[in-house]
Specification:
single chain, alpha/beta, Rossmann fold, 3-stranded antiparallel sheet, 14 helices
Length: 419
């Protein structure tokens, strides 16, 4: 390379660096001016900025819906006139959900709002301009899900598209279907492989344990969709009414949302996608194999619950619910902590899952009847639960009014744990 050409390229590079630097200075100067204007007009109009946790579908759905419910309830509203602006965090977990939120929220580019947010934090007195979270991030402590309708709707064209897509993947028109979500390690290991997610292993469950329940639902006239963006293995089960949507290559961002909106109910082990049917579209859900005990989702009458058994290696038996709380296991969120306490989490058996699925199906169809003994068991469980909530160390409460229902068939089988 000639000396003149080398000098020319150096000059070009320096000019590029200078242009980029001046551009950043200009953007931050504009952000500074906007923050000043926002502060000046605050007595008349409060402008706030917030980020949507769009990189994980569970938080994307639940946190955003909770914000809108709280807005309906006039919660976290320190001013009469409020305008909130949001930006998406990359990567976007579901583009259909992003599109639907864009229709009802004020969304601006992240590169611009982040800079305004930064300047606002630097200048004292800016906390009021942060949307923030009134409740514990994604805990419905005000029981708003049962008070307010869903905020998302499909357009006419999306409804047509949804029906066409369902026909393509084998669901007849007007057929009833249930969505099944069983968590394993595949999603986070694939999409965020740079992070060690083994702390969440205690949340995983064996999909094979759900075959009996799938067969029963099919016998009762339902199709069953296995949900998930990424799973470790296909389910070893074949039936025209079972669609292994998570594994068969038919999964799309659009159908993830549409299926969640149109299912009769959902069966889940407590993973991100279940926020779509339960939070966004108010569908009933049977939570199986969930935990920890102190974090049970208690805030909706459409939630039905069943936890894993806590087997003490030291005592060589299962722990009662009171013992789970007393030993500090009620709020453990790390797999290694269970090992440290010599406790092994035991999954619900195929028979237990089957019985719980029959129960929720019959409750929803109006054929289930609780006995007086069943009501006593239910009340006893929640009395134990509420009596131990004082042990929580979190700054924000995890529960409002207890509205969920613990599996009656499970309580009947394990009455001895109600101590």
């Amino acid at each position: 390379m000639s000396k003149s050409k080398y000098i020319f390229l150096k000059i070009i590079k320096l000019i590029s660096i200078l242009v980029i630097f001046l551009y950043k200075i200009f953007i931050y100067f504009c952000a500074f001016l906007i923050v000043i204007i926002i502060r000046i007009i605050r007595p008349l109009i409060l402008i706030r900025i917030g980020n949507l946790w769009s990189f994980r579908i569970g938080h994307f759905a639940a946190n955003t819906e909770l914000y809108m419910c709280e807005k309906d309830a006039n919660i976290n509203a320190p001013h009469k006139f409020i305008f909130d602006f949001f930006y998406f965090e990359e990567p976007i977990s579901n583009h259909q959900l992003m599109l639907m939120f864009k229709r009802i929220l004020n969304i601006l580019p992240s590169w611009f709002l982040i800079r305004i947010q930064l300047i606002n934090k630097i200048i004292p007195g800016g906390a009021i301009h942060d949307v923030g979270y009134n409740s514990n991030i994604d805990r419905d402590i005000h029981n708003l899900l049962d008070k307010y309708p869903s905020h998302l709707n499909f357009t006419f064209d999306e409804e047509i598209k949804g029906q066409e897509e369902l026909l393509k993947i084998g669901l007849p028109k007007n057929a009833k279907f249930v969505c099944l979500l069983v968590r394993d390690s595949a999603y986070l290991a694939t999409y965020q492989s740079e992070i060690d997610w083994s702390a969440h292993d205690y949340r995983d469950s064996n999909i094979e344990n759900y075959i009996l329940a799938i067969e029963e639902l099919i016998n009762r006239g339902y199709f069953v969709f296995r949900m998930g963006a990424k799973v470790n293995q296909p389910l070893n089960f074949t039936n025209p009414k079972f669609i292994d949507y998570a594994y068969n290559g038919m999964r799309t961002d659009f159908l993830d949302i549409y299926l969640g909106a149109k299912c009769e109910f959902c069966i889940s082990t407590g993973a991100g996608w279940d926020a779509v049917p339960t939070w966004l579209f108010r569908k009933p859900v049977l939570f199986t194999n969930i935990g920890p005990l102190g974090y049970l989702p208690t805030y909706s009458a459409k939630f039905y619950l069943m936890i894993k058994g806590h087997f003490s290696i030291e005592k060589n038996r299962f722990l009662t619910y009171s013992e789970i709380f007393d030993s500090g296991l009620g709020y453990i969120l790390d797999s290694s902590d269970y090992k440290m306490k010599n406790v092994k989490l035991i999954e619900n058996t195929p028979e237990e899952i089957l019985e719980a699925v029959i129960e929720i199906e019959e409750r929803l169809s109006g054929t289930w009847k609780d006995s007086h003994e069943d009501e006593k068991l239910q009340n006893h469980f929640w009395n134990i639960f509420q009596g131990n909530l004082s042990t929580i160390s979190s700054k924000a409460p995890l529960h409002g009014k207890i509205k969920s229902h613990f599996s009656t068939t499970f309580l009947r089988k394990y009455k001895v744990w109600l101590q």
